[in-house]
Amino acid sequence: MTRYLKQNAVCVINCSWDVKELEQQLPAKMRRDLAEKKAKLFIIDATKIAVKAGLGKRINMIMQTVFFKLSAVMPYEEAVEMLKKSIKKMYGKKGDKVVKMNIDGVDASIAGIVECEVPAAWASLAVDTEASDAKTSTVAYAKGPRMFPEVQNASQFAAQVQKPCNNLDGNSLPVSAFVPGGRVPCGTSQYEKRGIAIQVPKVGMDKCTQCNKCSLICPHAAVRPFLMTSQELGKAPASFKEGSRSAIGGGVLDNYQYRIQVSPWDCTGCELCVRICPADALTLGPAEKAIQEEEANWNFAVALPDRGDEIDKTTVKGSQFQKPYLEFSGACEGCGETPHVKLMTQLFGDRLVIANAT
Ligand code: SF4
Ligand code: SF4
């Protein structure tokens, strides 16, 4: 992201870290770029300001204010006046309360900006690309169908094409990185592991009624029910074992243990699963903690045998034991479209063709 910064650029990071924590949190490559470009660095905890102003996680007004304050594209006072006018126009129909919340967010933004020193020593930091990638390399990947033999190596595609594109470095790719015809392999979103959630749900399995509604509604297939034999459970991480219960529902389910598992790297923190849970079994907690506690559990869960064939997929509960072929979508958090398409892939599997999905 910082590779293309211009000299003396202004860089603002929306984060929950304080100045001291930046040293640990920012990758060496980023710190080196900032120092080499003599960038002016600012941080702001826009999410905290938004929550305080009653805006939930909506940080757009706050970041717009920050942009006008620091970019100097026009006189700041003039920009803020126009911003407030546009808030009244945009949200006036939603009532004075919504207008006030947004204006409060704008007013609180400037006080939240913190300027950070960029130590000159960062310019000589050694950059170990392998080490910076190590975090994601421990993640386990599920197997799925591949459409075309010539582009079937999804992990290679993810490393050579997808990753540079996600790092805003797609322009550096040669034409030869692509397959003639422009086809790309399926199932590459599993390699992204974006880690964009601020809060991630945790399931209280003592409350869970095993309805699978959380999995049904998740737009990103980041929370799923898993079935395992007692023998398989014996090899699970300790906290996975603790959170597993005998599967309920009768029939073939009597043979298995059950657990709801969240993928903390893939969850977007949209909260839909928390809201739909009829048993109030899901609660949100800090994503960093969830990654530490749940990453190994998710890796264990996705490597379990697929038991979809044993279960009737025409019920809400049964459909969620089927493998979703639209998973970890990059749609906006809480997307209302992807749960439907995901469900179709669970019902029709790799016989489903989606054309012009707009
Ligand atoms: S918070 Fe949203 S993305 Fe995360 S598991 Fe729940 S429904 Fe899925
Ligand atoms: S929605 Fe709640 S009760 Fe139902 S499976 Fe998910 S966590 Fe359990």
Automatic annotation (TrEMBL):
InterPro entries: 4Fe4S_Fe-S-bd (IPR017896), 4Fe4S_Fe_S_CS (IPR017900), Pyruvate:ferred/Flavod_OxRd (IPR050722), Pyrv-flavodox_OxR_EKR_sf (IPR037112), Pyrv-flavodox_OxRtase_EKR (IPR019456), Pyrv/ketoisovalerate_OxRed_cat (IPR019752), Pyrv_flavodox_OxRed_cen (IPR002869). Keywords: Oxidoreductase. Residues 199-228, 258-287 form the 4Fe-4S ferredoxin-type domain. The keyword Repressor does not apply. The keyword Oxidoreductase applies. SUPFAM superfamilies: 4Fe-4S ferredoxins, Pyruvate-ferredoxin oxidoreductase, PFOR, domain III. PROSITE patterns: 4FE4S_FER_1 (PS00198), 4FE4S_FER_2 (PS51379). GO terms for molecular function: oxidoreductase activity, acting on the aldehyde or oxo group of donors. GO terms for biological process: response to oxidative stress. It comes from the Eukaryota. SMART domains: EKR. Coiled coil: none annotated. Gene3D superfamilies: 3.30.70.20, 3.40.50.970, Pyruvate-ferredoxin oxidoreductase, PFOR, domain III, Pyruvate-flavodoxin oxidoreductase, EKR domain. PANTHER family: PYRUVATE-FLAVODOXIN OXIDOREDUCTASE-RELATED (PTHR32154). This is PFOR protein. The lineage of its organism: Eukaryota, Sar, Alveolata, Dinophyceae, Suessiales.
